[in-house]
Amino acid sequence: MRALSEAGVDVVPLHLPPRAYLxxxxxxxxxxRRIRPDVVHTHxxxxxxxxxxxxxxxxxxxxTTVHGFTGGDLKNRIYEGLQRRAFHRFDAVVAVxxxxxxxxxxxxxxxxxxxxxxxxxxxxxxxxxxxxxxxxVGRLTREKGADLLLAAAGLLGDLPVAVSLLGDxxxxxxxxxxxxxxxxxxxxxxxxxxxxxxxxFCAFDVFVLSSRTxxxxxxxxxxxxxxxxxxxxxxxxxxxxxxxxxALLVPPDDPGALAAAIRCVHADSAAxxxxxxxxxxxxxSEFAPA
Length: 290
Prior knowledge:
This protein is α/β, with parallel strands linked by helices. The protein has 13 helices and nine strands.
């Protein structure tokens, strides 16, 4: 902690007695209220089970790093069993080794469960028939750019478009009001947080990542795994994951370019499917655990 403080990082230590779980959760709740973190990153079964849910109640994305499982006595095995069940509620799970990543994937953790068949996924999301389905998955915050997709949708009034936004966030009321002002009405559907969102990408005719800033988004890998055509802003690590051979990349903060790319996918589905196939092949060859 001293090294972090010396590097200029704000550190808030929590000094708690053993097994003071209610006090611990209250302390985490107070921190989430006070500093409103962009993400909560946990390590170990204790915080995965006891504390991560507090962050999720504040709609804060949660990530856990898994270092392995030791087994041990009955009490420890029970805790590790609870931890494995908790993984399904995290936005991302990081494994420290490829063998461990493979074990978690086979167990169906985040990113591990295979995409649903297209018809099943569209049924789950109640996609209107004969609609070109535009999907968006993420937090409803400014940096993720849902407002840019709404602006792009307003330029596609001549197409039979249905836009589904999966996710939630503190700007949802403002974005809903923006959609209403733009007259998008029933063309936009707000589906909130879905625990199995990673399995539903096959329901989309195109997945749109409209972020203003990014790191390396997990949703991009999920779209690649599903074989779904991708339109994405060329920000952060996105161009390191997909090129113009695998996706249509557009500048950030440009609804017109976003709309044109969506229109291109609609007009030439064969080319879009070919890009999606190459994206899936690249995922397997460059990013999948060995």
